[in-house]
Amino acid sequence: QLQLVESGGGLVQPGGSLRLSCAASKLTSEPRAIGWFRQAPGKEREGVSCISSRGDNTDYGDSVKGRFTISRDNANSIVYLQMNNLKVEDTAVYYCAASPITWSPQATCVAARFSHWGQGTQVTVSS
């Protein structure tokens, strides 16, 4: 059973940084594309950033390009989302998700392409 656990959320001031982690079981032996999505109250779920199984393809939402960086450490089954220059509008629950197939070369950040989801971690950007 594939399990995903997010961590690293919290309260940060505008302009600050946070690094989210997604610990995914079996990522070492069965690499999958991993995506970060977020959902704010009253808004639709939004694709933030996604990375292919090998880490050679990435995709970013327009609102986070140049501020967020996704990376992965398959040896330790972790995917990171480094978030810099955070804005109030980045406030949301952030979820990581895994693709249904292994060794996926795709990194397209569309929620329908991901089948396994974590419980989420809250990120609040406020002064």
Q: Which short descriptors sum up this protein?
A:
127 residues, mainly beta, seven-stranded mixed β-sheet, 0% helix
Record the SSE blueprint.
Elements: E1 4-7, E2 10-12, E3 18-24, E4 32-39, E5 46-51, E6 58-60, E7 68-73, E8 78-83, E9 92-102, E10 116-117, E11 121-125
Parallel strand pairs: 2-11
Antiparallel strand pairs: 1-3, 3-8, 4-5, 4-9, 5-6, 7-8, 9-10, 9-11
Order of helices and strands: EEEEEEEEEEE
Strand content: over 45%
Tell me the quaternary state. Answer: single chain
Radius of gyration: 13 Å
Structural class by SSE content:
mainly beta
Low-confidence stretches: none
Main β-sheet description? 7 strands, mixed
The helix tally amounts to 0
The overall pLDDT, averaged over residues, is 95
Q: How many strand segments?
A: 11
Helix share of residues?
under 10%
